[in-house]
Amino acid sequence: MTTATVIGSGPNGLAAALTLALAGVEVTVLEAAATIGGGTRSHEAIVPGLLHDHCSAIHPMAVGSPLFRRAGLERHGLRWAWPEFDCVHPLDDGSAAVLHRSVAATATGLGADERLWRRLFEGPVAVYDELGGDIMRPLLRIPRHPFRLARFGIPATAPATLLARAFRTDRGRALFGGVAAHAFHPLDRPLSASIGLGILTSGHRYGWAVAVGGSQRIADALAAALAEHGGTIETGVRVRSAAELPPSDLTIWDVAPTALADILGDRLPPRIAAAYRRFRYGPGAFKVDFAVEGGVPWVAAAARRAGTVHLGGSFAEIAAGERDIHAGRMPIRPFVLVGQQYLADPQRSVGAVHPVWAYAHVPHGYTGDATEAIIAQIERFAPGFRDRVVGWSHRSPGGFADDNPNFVGGNIMTGAKDIPQLLFGPRKTLQPYDIGLPGHYLCSAATPPGPGAHGMCGVNAAERALRRLGGHLPHRESATSTTRSTS
């Protein structure tokens, strides 16, 4: 029987392991931490029973993951829940832009920008189940649906600042800008619109869902499915060198490219090792978990019903903040994302005390304390918030990196999402999962399609390994194939 070892149990490592197991490969996953999941872990914090997500919390890209649907993860306890509103972006005048799952409802709420929003999203959302098979694979390849991908891809190639000029309202610009800022990248750079458009399109198709019981349930469901197909997971096992690897036919690495170069050393071809050591990491995140009595007193009523709230004011303010952090400067008013997952999943709360998840965009490796800046941004749109906080805990960029080595300098995106790394991954090649060592493949979020709990970096790497091995996938279909949902 073919054997495989997967290093790392984040969603990509687990997805790679499951894809291999479904093809009949005997798989072992080695995880350095005591708990599986990488960025999809959850934990109790501040108040006993109060449940907080460690990093990844809102999952517009994961709900429609082809592997998740194909593997039937709901049989293993994974359930999704949706807030009333996906995302709200409040402005200083008390108004707010509201992102609904419905394209029509969102567009209607944007007034003069209704037509533009419909033009950007109605077509791609209608064919997303087919389009997603191309979006979730490397961009530099022959697409399965070239005309549909081109219709989506033309605006995605633009700088977000250029696309923002097409909006006529502050609300429309700010709503788009807040989602585009998820890339941790200057909004005036080419392709900076792509991640925002991708998140918005998948969100309009599947909604900005949370995993019931915490994001840890995603990892747990993948692990249960893996076990069902004979795979095993060993925690507390850190691989520091090639000599520590068990013998196997395939090895899939869910690690940062720089870490892979350090682990494998001179076993890698010199040009590939050099490319991995040159891999660029982007700005970091500074996260604060709050325990809040009675919830956040947002001025904009819609924000009290939203799973995610973006705090950055106008598009211009968001763009300035992203430029600052990219240049290594800490903004006075950083862009802040607030998660209110308990609105969709009430079991995360303890009575009237609710878990509020928040992080600010900060410079790479930032060593200061951004807690007060995050509180100030929330207070700006929710006066009296500070008085409702009964406790908090924070995680700095260094804390993120210590807890998850893939998050170098607090960069939870596992790499800067500039043009070369968006197009190619960690090195310039048409095969981003190959590392130049027979039987070894890279599957972390440094590879296409990039960050998110969707697991598709792992699926793509595992499929590449199976093709090179001459293996096959069950039912003669690819794990990235999709079928139109009737939901």
Automatic annotation (TrEMBL):
Source domain of life: Bacteria
A Pfam cross-reference name: NAD_binding_8
InterPro entries xrefs: FAD/NAD-bd_sf
Coiled coil regions in record: none
Protein's name in the database: NAD(P)/FAD-dependent oxidoreductase
